[in-house]
Amino acid sequence: DTAVSQTPKYLVTQMGNDKSIKCEQNLGHDTMYWYKQDSKKFLKIMFSYNNKELIINETVPNRFSPKSPDKAHLNLHINSLELGDSAVYFCASSQRRGLAGLSYEQYFGPGTRLTVT
Amino acid sequence: QKEVEQNSGPLSVPEGAIASLNCTYSDRGSQSFFWYRQYSGKSPELIMFIYSNGDKEDGRFTAQLNKASQYVSLLIRDSQPSDSATYLCAGPDTGGFKTIFGAGTRLFVKA
Fold first, then answer.
1. A28-61 pLDDT, tens per residue?
2. Looking at the complex, does the CB of residue B95 fall below 8 Å from at least one CB of chain A?
């Protein structure tokens, strides 16, 4: 009955490799997000999709490419991994996209701890 | 740059006391605010949301919103050791449809 699930939970890889993280939600939500939480625990938005449309694309390196095959799935592919990419990546979903000045409660997946060596 | 600011703490309270967590925000146009709890090694979990000025109570938790002063607070009554966690305040970005998270306040409840 997991609401938002992510795979894998842990990912250890070497610099220069390419890796993907997958996310699925069964809440019927139409908006999904990728967040990065660094070692200082600061949670920062990376991308958001609403009904498969990219609506938020923060200033992240082009090596990061999200893809949403349908509104229940959001994947994150990372090319040429670097040491600084080490962090916990959270997927989240909300019932609908936010409006100006108004956002909606989000439900987070368990996170993927990425370690780049 | 829109901001949501919190005192990173740690905040330490004895068991049974009231824990008061505060958050200020810079954008007057923000209308909705959220409190998430994050245990170490776990994901953020929504515990309260508030849209209107005033207080909103849910069990031992009370969220308070003061739009004139641009602050949001979370009160935890009868604090328990299981409440020990990092509490994240979050609010919307007025123009960008994003949710902005504060840096979080670490709470320790001592038995």
1. 999 999 999 998 888 999 999 998 899 888 888 9
2. yes
Give me the pLDDT at residue B1, please: 58
- pLDDT 10s digits, A81-93: 999 999 999 999 9
* 3 state DSSP class of A108: strand
- Which among A42, A104, A110 has the least Cβ separation from residue B103? A42
Chain segment B8-57, per-residue pLDDT in tens: 889 999 999 999 999 999 888 888 899 999 999 999 999 999 988 899 99
Nearest to A106 among B93, B99, B100 (CB): B99
* Residue of B43, B47, B56, B98 to mutate, interface with A, max A Cβ within 10 Å: B43
